[in-house]
Amino acid sequence: MTTVSLAPAAAGAAVCTPTIRSRMRRWLRKHPTLIVGAALLSTVAALSVAAPWIASHDPQALDPLARFRPPSAEHLFGTDAMGRDLFSRTVWGGRASLSVGLLVAVLATSAGVALGLLAGFVRWAEGPVMRLMDGLMAIPDILLAIALMAVTRAGLTTVVVAITVPQVPRVVRLVRSLALSLRERQYVEAAHALGTPLPVILIRHVLPNMITPLIVQATFIAATAILIEALLSFLGVGLPPQIPSWGTMMADARNFIAIAFHAALFPGLFLAATVLSVNLIGDGLRDALDPRLARQL
């Protein structure tokens, strides 16, 4: 009986099959923006989450005798016009900004998906829903947010709602355009022909094909929400004063730039780094998840 050795073939297969580590390195080289954005956002998020432990002072503690202190070992980022420690206020302010960005992204995407699917698959609802979205988009985001804040009490919940409402139409238009394309696909028509209920069709066949653009859109919504929250706080119509916010810190320091530039520098840097990191993540996810871009790369 002839004995056939499979060891060389197995060894060749092991050599030809790329290891997980090599695949990971190749994937990282293809999507550097995603890695840089994730690293930058992780750093800001880690500092914000660890604020209760790494903050050396109470962010609301006043010390008029220590006002406008420059950065030092005692006050890493210096102090503001009221003697409050800027490092403590900056890391605590990140908690508010990241919370607003995450909540707005989740709420706007969820509401936009529901209304977009309604407009895309229920023909009688398409007209009213889209005309409402057109009306909301006709008003600039910041003006609509300020108008909503003017008729409500200042607080985290009202800020989130005021920023979410202007972002919903963008998701609705995206989802509706995808729904109009997907509802003509053969597998969707076959499911209709078999009597499959519409909710089941949407969950099993339609939503999975929308995940990629929705994830990318959600990242850009989060970045926009962080910026708008900072702008509202800067204008004095955002978060209440007892909640540290990067926008509030820059507003408090705007009249003292000449004598205490650091009071506006550090919250501004954290705001810019956070928005940049979220945008980089959105660009990286678009490149990584879009098959057409992947083939071009």
What is the compact description of this entry?
The chain has 297 residues and is mostly helical. It is 72% helix and 0% strand.
**SS elements, strand count:** 0
Distance between the termini: 52 Å
Using the CA coordinates, give the radius of gyration: 25 Å
If classified by CATH, what would the architecture be? Orthogonal Bundle
Keywords: Cell membrane, Membrane, Plasmid, Transmembrane, Transmembrane helix, Transport
Protein name: ABC transporter permease
Pfam families: BPD_transp_1, OppC_N
Organism: Azospirillum oryzae
Question: Describe it for me?
Answer:
It is a multi-pass membrane protein. One of its GO terms (cellular component) is plasma membrane. It holds the Pfam family BPD_transp_1. Keywords: Cell membrane, Membrane, Plasmid, Transmembrane, Transmembrane helix, Transport. This protein is an all-alpha fold and 297 residues long. It has one domain (30-50, 85-289): MetI-like fold, CATH 1.10.3720. Helices cover 72% and strands 0% of the residues. The radius of gyration is 25 Å and the shape is globular.
